[in-house]
């Protein structure tokens, strides 16, 4: 697959799209192929090439700007020597990355006006990785405002993506609500099994500390009531 963000681009980015494919197991009976006995799902992949402008990338991202300087990385030396370069980005999801490239290159009609939570979470991860906060601010504000009515009211699998999104895009009201739920309803330190979501450890540690403090205070209150004998029912007859 080839995506052209800038027809005059000098940089080809190579990403990998994981594909789920279904295969069949067949057996031969009396020299003939019998009907399939079972089906298996296996992962395949395809390369996604994106033709982009190194100048646009440098203006949008300090990470890419540093990469393209000839004295820092081989990509910069290759770009300076040949006027073009190819960079492999195997860890970046092509769907989210393509949206960011369209924003950076001003291809506004190719930018979705609405995204789901999973895609926004993947976009936010790339925004954090490449420091693209300013260039996506208008669209991220729009996407978040559309999804905000779906903000969970209890601890679910959606809470951690919301925590990451609200932290990366600096949405204090959403962040406050999400951390409140995490502190009150989580069963332990959150984020232990999600290396793909970029939330600083200091944030996760602070949530856990406040959670433990609240539990300790609650136990202390219960212990005081039990020790003083003030645990009788006070409701009016």
Automatic annotation (TrEMBL):
Gene3D superfamilies recorded: Potassium Channel Kv1.1, Chain A
Residue ranges occupied by any BTB domain in the UniProt entry: 43-141
Protein name per its UniProtKB record: BTB domain-containing protein
Organism encoding this protein: Monilinia laxa (Brown rot fungus)
Lineage: Eukaryota, Fungi, Dikarya, Ascomycota, Pezizomycotina
